[in-house]
Amino acid sequence: MTRYILRQLGQGDLIKNMPENRALSGLCSGIIEAYDLFGVPSAIILFVVEEISYNICDQRFHEFEISEKRPEIMIYRRTLTEIYEETTLNDKKQLILDGHTVAVVYYRSGYEPAQYPSTREWDARLRVERSTAIKCPSIHYQLAGTKKVQQALAAPGVLEKFMGAGAATGRVRDIFTGLYSLDFDENGERAVDMALADTERFVLKPQREGGGNNLYGSDVREALLRMRHSRERAAYILMERILPPLVSGYVVRPGASVPP
To answer: Subunit info (predicted)?
Structure first.
């Protein structure tokens, strides 16, 4: 997209300055390698998708990239509800869909509570996790990416359990920002007081995937005052805000009143 826009602006000579972006090919190559490691030539790849997807172009790019690299690999798209209705586990714990063994399950859904509206979706997730299919991500990896796990890893002495007490551990810890538990203990109360004293310094983060769910500024104060004596507050962690340097650029969007 950026390369296309530069050409349209008559700035094609600047394309050579753009960094190489291998995200698409890299991820798809990883999925294909997982497929090959599974070792069943007739197996399929399953994309777990939403009922209505607003990110369909990105998903299709991955599908097309895999098909271009390995046209013999079949790719299916199913919601969690459809997985519950259409899949089974055989006696070898293989996940079977439409008569085919599933080699790789790539989650493009299943990251938000609303995507599990009933027990059927939870049962579908459990069935996939119990299967031999290679999951991207597995439930362990998905949980490891939550803010609570990040906050726990940042606690004093925890990182040392995994990396030892050497200089490398210190260098890793140096890139951590402040991460604080809001549990109902002395440290949690101290974190609440610290945030209420300077709300602009912090962000409240729930155990959710992606953006759009964090709280900043006056919303931090309002939420903490509301949740201070509620177990709900333990579902969040407090994090020091990362304030990046300001840069100028263009935002390209449909219906904008001022063209770039």
So the answer is: Homodimer.
